[in-house]
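Suppose you are handed a protein chain with no further information: no name, no annotation, nothing but its sequence. What can you learn? This example shows the usual starting point.
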Amino acid sequence: MTEPLPDDTAPRRLVPALWSGRPMRARLMVVVVLINLVAAAISGAVIIHKARTATEVETAASMAVVEPLVAETLQAMQDAPLPGLFRTLALRFRGLRHVRVALLDAAHQPVGTGTQREGARRAPAWFAHLIAPPAQSHEVPLMLRGARIGTALVTAEPSDEIDEVWGYALALGLTGLSLSFAMLAILYVAFGRILSPLAQLAAGLTRLEQQDYGARVGRPDTRELAVIATRFNRLAEALGAARAANLRLHRRVMTAEEDERRRTALELHDEFGPCLFALEANSSSIARIAATLDEPARARLIQRTDDIAAIVKRVQTINRALLNRLRPAGLGQVPLSRCLELLVREAARHHPEIAVEGRFAALKAGYGDLVDLTIYRCVQEGLTNALRHAGASRVTVEVAEEEGSLRLAVDDDGSGLAEDRVQDLGEGRGLAGMRERVEALGGRLALVPREPGTSLRIVLPAGHEAREEEAP
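A reasonable first move is to predict its three-dimensional structure. Written in structure tokens, the prediction is:
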């Protein structure tokens, strides 16, 4: 049985997860920091390479100085005693840098103290390990009057050079770090100013998403972002113009539809109504004539006339209901508040088990045919939905004029609406139709959850039709 291969995709997924979704300014700052780190690494490598080479050269030069110095000293002190000679050599070697010299006599025993490095090492061990050249040492024989009196053991000691390089590197690193922090701070502020138009564009797009086509953004200084801002403003203007044209077309369609409904209702009232009245009158006349006849013809005729009268009454009832659906009775002839009160009273009469209340104070007599009809239809549809489907014990309808707008609210204390029920209402119970009517007049419609129940909220501009007629 083969073992499953290790999952090596986790590290590869980690980097996009840390990178994706980050703000653009943060990404740019990360890129700048990475560039600085790469530059610092390259600079450090160059410094170490140059310092290592320079240390090797300095150490080799110092070691080459020892042998001539020994020869010169021995030649100048041919007659000096050995202790004085060794002390003189030790003093002269003490001034040399980058080497350590140990003096040995003819028996290879240490003489004097040799050269010692003064002070403590400043460079850390890891830096010294990177800079220090390979260990070097050699012996210089001490010859006096043809005889070997001792040996000078010369060993490379690059600590001084390494400490100097460390000091330079430390000063350069601190200076570079300070400059990097200053640069990062400046770039952070600069990126914020440069990218701030993107936040304005995002806010503008949010307003467009909310169908606010009056959104505009200022023209930034950056040429590329200025082009985007210009295109955005043109897009918002085009969308606003298209929406305005669509609303005008929708209002014209609604006006044409209502005109057709009005003509149809007028024809039904003026033509169909008199015909039904004539049928009812003729039926009564036949019944009176039948009363003068003998049996069994009289009974049969009276039965037929009663049937005709019942059919006529049924058709008249259907005709009145059809007329009310086509055009609410009295709308445009009596005050709007009175029509709404009659509508609420009729709904309460059909649903005596539910308390139905209407508040329509301080309304004008009318706000234009389309606005009045839209308010009436929305109250009618909202009441119907609340009474039939909310399971409420109380329904309140309120229409008021506030700050140049008509605000309609239908509140119930029912079970509320889940998301699927809201979708059902939009498909089959008139919510979509109400929304189309309201938006065609530049209004807003919303279903707001309550505790308990649901609230239908509609806002319409008052006097909308008058402003449309005055517009060029």
